[in-house]
């Protein structure tokens, strides 16, 4: 069983089954996918480490793509490993960072993942402390994503991103120039790739859009 949700931001209550009742359905061998801004690899303090240890005791696996509010210095210190066909960072045995531009096979279905996004609040943040320039993808990440899609015949079951493709973003926030490079890349992915459904987050809203797109925040959606 696979459930997808939106931004977590290091909020412990997002793993409270009473406040997020959809979590009650997840059991041994299941997966929860966070569509960016996981936020539990951010402060590097004792409380954060202890909560990661709490997550390590869950019966299911927590997978996350990175968002814009992540500590990339810390994320990139984890060893680069392979899992289910793509590159990952193991934060804990069952807490796994799904990297940009990868294709994974999970429960017999193919997932293309591409994290990253632009922080509209970066003027309130300090570089290297609460903001990192790696929030926006590099050219090599864009290129790797296209290569991996090509290897899979531009055909996957699901796409998980933090940001939205340009045509969808225009329906939500037409004025989004600082992120447009990423949105246009995702639009290219949209145009070239066959997929069943695309899930994204980032904007702290819940909505479905034409063309099989779903924006998530605190709700959880189970896929077929």
Q: Could you describe the 3D structure shown?
A:
- The structure is a single chain.
- The chain has 224 residues and is an alpha/beta fold.
- It is globular and about 40 Å long.
- The protein has 5 helices and 13 strands.
- Helix content is 21%, strand content 25%.
- The chain has helices spanning 46-56, 72-75, 139-151, 166-172, 180-192; strands at residues 2-5, 31-35, 61-65, 80-83, 86-92, 95-98, 102-106, 109-114, 158-161, 197-200, 207-209, 213-215, 220-222.
- It has a single domain, classed as Purple Acid Phosphatase, chain A, domain 2, CATH 3.60.21.
Please provide a brief summary of the model.
Pfam families: Metallophos. Helices cover 21% and strands 25% of the residues.
Provide key terms for this protein.
21% helix; alpha/beta; 5 helices; 13 strands; 224 residues; seven-stranded mixed beta sheet; six-stranded mixed beta sheet; Purple Acid Phosphatase, chain A, domain 2
Q: Quick check: average pLDDT?
A: 97
Secondary-structure element order, N to C: EEHEHEEEEEHEHHEEEE
Q: Give the helix tally.
A: 5
Largest sheet: 7 strands, mixed
* Domains, number: 1
Assembly state (oligomeric): single chain
CATH topology: Purple Acid Phosphatase, chain A, domain 2
Strand order of the largest sheet: 4-5-6-3-2-1-13
Can you give the helix content as a percent range? Answer: 10-25%
CATH architecture: 4-Layer Sandwich
Overall 3D form: globular
Structural classification: alpha/beta
Task: Give the N-to-C terminal Cα separation.
Answer: 8 Å
Unreliable residue stretches: none
